[in-house]
């Protein structure tokens, strides 16, 4: 998932002390966190978590932010009951752990969630965002799933799907300039391939001075120098969703 010398990118960063405004629900075989906007909405966003799983407060904070902006937001457990990665785990075991959690094998779960959003939440237009592992999952879905309208991939690990670039839907890619795990050469290559093969709108944006996970894993109150970029990344994500949903 990262450079081979360090098998995984993910330092958990600043863990938010955040309880969440939504609720946990059971959708068929999947547990999920759902947050709804104050007024009824026919737009929804599926939030795909990183390796730290669906219960990470930071990811729920992002789901709640989407709800504040008028979207039904749902963050399902895409590990389907398997344990999320813990910062205390031995990194040497990461690649084995990852083998049973493939970002390209979530289609069955996504179909279940789409059905739930349509039938139980009245959603007519549905997009997806994802962080790190979830960012790679967004790339997969934008290449494959006809039922989603748009996606935002935040520091999604490119090498999972680097040989494919014929996106079906408008996709926004957020990358960090100083990401130890997604070298800028990979981003340049992705951009070249999209230019050659992509027929839909896309944008790749690199945020200066930022590191992996900055949009959802950095607290802006204790990282004042990063605050403008954290806020910009979040704003750009919302603006992209607003444009295509």
Automatic annotation (TrEMBL):
Q: Where in the cell is it found?
A: Cytoplasm, Cytosol
Gene Ontology terms, MF aspect: hydrolase activity
Pfam families on file? DLH (PF01738)
List the SUPFAM superfamilies.
alpha/beta-Hydrolases
Instruction: Give the Gene3D superfamilies listed for this entry.
Output: alpha/beta hydrolase
GO CC, sorted alphabetically, is: cytosol
* Every Dienelactone hydrolase domain range: 30-245
Which keywords has UniProt assigned to this entry? Cytoplasm
Q: Repeat as a keyword?
A: no
InterPro entries, A to Z:
AB_hydrolase_fold, CMBL, Dienelactn_hydro
Q: Which family is this sequence assigned to?
A: Belongs to the dienelactone hydrolase family.
Family annotation (PANTHER family): CARBOXYMETHYLENEBUTENOLIDASE HOMOLOG
Official protein name in the record: Carboxymethylenebutenolidase homolog
